[in-house]
Amino acid sequence: LFLFRLDQAHNMEPQPSRSMGGGPSSPSFAAPNPFRGQTVLHVPGPLFDVDLRLFNMQGRVVRVERHQQWPSEKSWQAPRSLPAGTYYVELRHRSGAHYIRLQIMP
Predict the structure, then answer these.
(1) Residue 105, Cβ neighbours under 10 Å: how many?
(2) In the sheet that 85-93 helps form, which strands lie side by side, from edge to edge?
(3) Cis peptide leading into 27, omega within 30 of 0?
(4) Integer angstrom CA distances of residue 32 from 18, 41, 71, 82, 105
């Protein structure tokens, strides 16, 4: 696994990480994952003033959402326009950020 490190210009560099959020033993994860359409994002929460950004594997932001509150478990619907593949979701909040690798199936 690797984690994308974002600099101030929002460029992404892959960084080794064990906290990417690949499964239930991680502090942040999605289940089911891989998934079609909808999954549940799990984070240590609740979180407040959350900016969700979804990145494709090229590091481009393909979705942005703003949430006043994010509970510890929240159902999330992938946009139908997204092709199948691997994505990274960033949940940036008041005191930091959580990153979760998502695998969207066809």
Answers:
(1) 12
(2) 61-70, 47-55, 85-93, 96-104
(3) no
(4) 19, 9, 17, 17, 11
Amino acid at 103: Q
Q: 79-83: which pairs have CB atoms within 8 A and are 24 or more residues apart?
A: 80/37, 82/54
Give the pLDDT confidence of 31-49 residue by residue, as tens digits: 999 999 999 999 998 999 9
- 93 touches 99 (CB < 8 A): no
Cα separation, 53 vs 9, whole angstroms: 14
Residues of the chain with pLDDT under 50: 1-3, 8-11, 13-23, 25
